[in-house]
Amino acid sequence: xxxxxxxxxxxxxxxxxxxxxxxxxxxxxxxxxxxxxxxxxxxxxxxxxxxxxxxxxxxxxxxxxxxxxxxxxxxxxxxxxxxxxxxxxxxxxxxxxxxxxxxx
Length: 104
Description:
Blueprint: H1 3-51, H2 58-89
Helix pairs in contact: 1-2
């Protein structure tokens, strides 16, 4: 095999890897978009119920507000996870994987 053929084969392999990485990135972004929109829609819907006065009791209103708060916490965790991923990719954050043992 000539040097030129070997370089061409390496280029083809690199091209396949780039296409695979791009497909994985697209899938990741689609999933993240869905995961972020779900709790945000819940927060907005729950708040609208309260603001429009559609809760019939204070207990029902408190339950709706607790659900909105829970959705907000989920959304915050997702955003923090995304920021952590971004920091890891930028080399600004390192993972420290240690085994944790729990003795009862």
